[in-house]
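Internal tracking record. Fields below are filled automatically when a chain is submitted to the structure queue. Please do not edit lines marked as system-generated. If the sequence contains nonstandard residues, flag them in the REMARKS field before resubmitting.
Queue: standard
Priority: normal
Entity type: single polypeptide chain
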Amino acid sequence: AIEEITVGEGRRIDAYLQLKTCPSEQIRGKILIDSPGFDADAQRTATLQITNHIIDLSDLVLVFFDARHPEPGTMHDTLEHLVEHTINRPDSSKFLYILNQIDTTAREDNPEDVIASWQRALAQKGLTAGRFYRIYNPDAAVPIEDENLRYRFETKRDIDIAEIHDRMRQVGIDRAYRIISVLQQTAHDVEERIIPTLQSLLAQWQRRVMWLDGAVFGLILAALIGATLWSGQWEGWRFSHPFWSNLLNAPVWRFIALGAALVLAGYIHFAIRRLAADQVIAKLKKQVHDMREMDFADSIANAFRKNTRFWRSIFHKQPVGWGPHAKRQVAAILAEANGYVQALNDKFTNPSGADDATRESDDRTESPKEIMV
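SYSTEM-GENERATED OUTPUT FOLLOWS
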């Protein structure tokens, strides 16, 4: 990822990430990654690239905010890259939003104001629902003299910390469910969003091509008729220009002229096809007001381009590759995904509420899980 941004930077991976081990049974089989910060320096682009790569690979992402500076301006980069660009991901449930160092609000006894400011900042980026956590480190906390206030802070912190730890313990189970969820979401998107969008774009393209063909060739025909009428070479319904008569009487030149006319008409038609396709794509991208939809628009545009290649007729209504076989494949994927969900439920659901199923699932999961902090 670093090499894609700056050639040679990949050899300096230690400047971005450093590996450390910890002899703890609680994190055995798990990889915790403390992502680099978003400092505005020469490494910023590479840092963001690494962070995005880590997020894609991670099973759980803890997004920390500083309770000392909950204003939107002070955490602009975090809000943009870890909130606005992630809330519409199919795996958005793996993101936990945490307000850290909440103990700093105890002196002024205004945690509600700080939390409200923080949640307003999140809401401005589109995150209006979900579970939010408020924690602090008791070993480095600000002393809270008021016993009732300290009890309130500690109780809330303990509840949120316990939930975070529980999510970390269950990353193996969550990963399985999330992969299946992404698979289901992708299959549904193909049927309910991608294919209908492509069909709509192809229908627009077909109408534009037909209208433009009619307009251009109609103008050419009108110009030819006008020119011949102006020449005064019509005898009733017969055009008697000497050049035209000689052309009709020479079979070789007649076929050459016919071929040239067909080539010219074909060139004009395919130029119109390209123009109409460009107009449809431009209209599509103008309708994208949200950066989160830009990737989808780019993917649809690429698929649309493939469906408007010169060998594809404008009368094809179905996108390339979307036929009965593809539909059966998507239906089979959805059926298998539902079967996997049922199998996971049978394996991991514990009606008694005990923690044995969770511990057993962690023991059975051999591959390391990744948690981004």
